[in-house]
Automatic annotation (TrEMBL):
Organism encoding this protein: Luteimonas salinisoli
Signal peptide (residue range): none
Family the UniProt entry places it in: Belongs to the aromatic-ring hydroxylase family. KMO subfamily.
GO molecular function terms listed in the Swiss-Prot or TrEMBL record: FAD binding; kynurenine 3-monooxygenase activity
Protein name, UniProt field: Kynurenine 3-monooxygenase
Enzyme class name: oxidoreductase
Catalyzed reactions per annotation: L-kynurenine + NADPH + O2 + H(+) = 3-hydroxy-L-kynurenine + NADP(+) + H2O
One example of a Gene Ontology biological process annotation: kynurenine metabolic process
Lineage: Bacteria, Pseudomonadati, Pseudomonadota, Gammaproteobacteria, Lysobacterales
Pathway: Cofactor biosynthesis; NAD(+) biosynthesis; quinolinate from L-kynurenine: step 1/3
Keywords annotated in UniProt: FAD, Flavoprotein, Monooxygenase, NADP, Oxidoreductase, Pyridine nucleotide biosynthesis
Length: 454
């Protein structure tokens, strides 16, 4: 097929990745059809459910920029400069994420973001089909069956290739798995989450500092709160599924109030609807999905959560999914056989997905259990100092993941070296006075090559 008539693609899922990919492909002049099981959110409101807001970082912003969507999204984003830690004694501390306001992350509303992307996809020429749930696929005949759950009616659709952008519970993945072993492994986290809301103050403003991601670390469990541009915060309680406290022992709204009164006392008065929110929002499960094969020759490929769902503790699932979209769109521009394009896409993205899945799991422990430790704070202070002394070599993991586009796998490898170095340099010390700067500088130069400008 000539470059002037690129092969059409059928995307399943008009969530975050599906809608962004549709924009990128349609802007390249490709015919794109997107099938989404939910109704059109522009007609009936957003029915997305979970995780009301998300942290958007550099990788995601860059992908949005590639799709011409960044300005529209950033108009509704709220800047978060760092973690505002709420200690158990009621004291507060802002731990900046980066060096200044050029190194921040942004809170975006999932529903608004999805609506913006859907609108832009359609404007770019993608054809969106709502109320179409993928039900079955015949890969040999390249034909898929979509069902409208409102009346049970079905539509048979022929496709050149399917892109599964249908999230962690992907129906495309399940259909692929029926004809080939994808090497799927799901590792559930034994912690879940529940969402609550801090409404605006009586004067219509924010009730707490808006430009921060608030954290109440409590060892084995924690609360976080992200701002929304309508002056609310979405609070998420992460807690073991079983334990004390755990979702099996804190079940009723009254038990939830008692937990907050004991462990999140300064948050409790900010959540007047705690009981109602608790009753309305069921606990969510968290898991990491590992998949050996992301594609079925040239007939189907998986992106985003469908290929590599991760726990949300680095705030990177969407950011990573958006990077997938840019990479797949780039590969498709070559017009090589689809099998090669999909294999190249998997080769480029899989090691990076594995790396961020790993870092996301590690970050959970850091957020709930480490941000108030004295040895952590000492290492963090030395880390910032080393970053200033060696800005081209020593870049904290959080910065490599959130403010740069260096491959996740490289960020993981370098941050392991850095962590070992920090641990060695601060072991047994109470302050940084005793650190041997000369020896440390030499180690940094020996172990960490300068980072190229990614
Ligand atoms: C509590 C929580 C907090 C998070 N916080 C962050 C964060 O701060 N930053 C971040 O980057 N990421 C975060 N994430 C991760 C992020 O939500 C996901 O990585 C992202 O939504 C993945 O996008 P996706 O398009 O692959 O999947 P989804 O957003 O899940 O979209 C899938 C779409 O496919 C549709 N669909 C499903 N099945 C079918 C079917 N059979 N037929 C047709 N359509 C179908 C769905 O309706 C949906 O529209 C968080 C996740 C959770 C759970």
């Amino acid at each position: 097929m000539s470059a002037a008539q690129p092969r059409p693609l059928t995307i399943v899922g008009a969530g975050l990745a599906g809608a962004l990919l549709a924009i990128l492909l349609a802007r390249d002049g490709r015919r794109v059809d997107v099938y989404e099981k939910r109704g059109d959110p522009r007609l009936r409101g957003y029915g997305g459910g979970r995780s009301i807001n998300l942290a958007l970082a550099e990788r995601g912003r860059h992908a949005l920029e590639q799709a011409g969507a960044e300005a529209a999204v950033m108009r509704q984003a709220v800047m978060m400069r760092g973690r505002m830690v709420h200690f158990a004694d009621g004291s507060l501390q802002l731990q900046r994420y980066g060096r200044d306001d050029s190194e921040v992350i942004w809170s975006v509303h999932r529903g608004d973001l999805n609506l913006t992307l859907i609108g832009l996809a359609e404007a770019a020429g993608a054809r969106l089909h709502f109320d179409r749930r993928l039900d079955a696929v015949d890969f040999d005949a390249r034909s898929a069956r979509f069902v409208d759950d409102r009346d049970g009616s079905a539509e048979q659709v022929d496709f050149a290739a399917l892109v599964g952008a249908d999230g962690a519970g992907s129906a495309v993945r399940a259909a692929m798995q029926r004809v080939a072993d994808l090497g799927e492994r799901v590792e559930p986290l034994d912690h879940g989450y529940r969402e609550l809301e801090i409404p605006p103050a009586d004067d219509g403003g924010f009730r707490i500092e808006p430009n921060a991601l608030h954290i109440w670390p409590r060892g084995d469990y924690m609360c976080i709160a992200l701002p929304n541009d309508e002056r609310t915060f979405t609070v998420t309680l992460f807690m073991p599924n079983r334990g004390n406290p755990g979702f099996d022992t804190v079940r009723t709204p009254a038990q939830a109030r008692a937990l907050f009164a004991r462990d999140f006392a300064d948050a409790l008065p900010l959540i007047p609807g705690l009981e109602a929110d608790w009753a309305a929002n069921p606990a969510g499960m968290l898991a990491t999905l590992y998949l050996e094969r992301w594609h079925l020759d040239g007939r189907a490929v998986l992106i985003g959560d469908a290929a590599h769902a991760m726990v949300p503790f680095h705030g990177q699932g969407m950011n990573c999914a958006f990077e997938d979209c840019v990479e797949l769109a780039r590969g498709l521009r070559d017009e090589a056989p689809l099998e090669e394009v999909f294999a190249g896409f998997q080769a480029a993205r899989q090691p990076n997905a594995l790396a961020i899945q790993h870092m996301a799991l590690e970050n959970y422990r850091e957020m709930r259990d480490r941000v108030d430790d004295s040895d952590y704070l000492l290492q963090r202070a030395l880390e910032l100092e080393l970053q200033q002394r060696h800005p081209d070599r020593f870049v904290p993991r959080y910065a490599m993941v959130s403010f740069m586009r260096i491959p996740y796998a490289v960020a993981l490898e370098r941050s392991r070296l850095q962590h070992a170095l920090l641990e060695r340099a601060t072991r047994g010390l109470d302050d940084l006075e005793q650190v041997d700067r000369g020896a440390l500088d030499a180690e940094v130069r020996a172990q960490l090559a300068p980072l190229e400008d990614f």
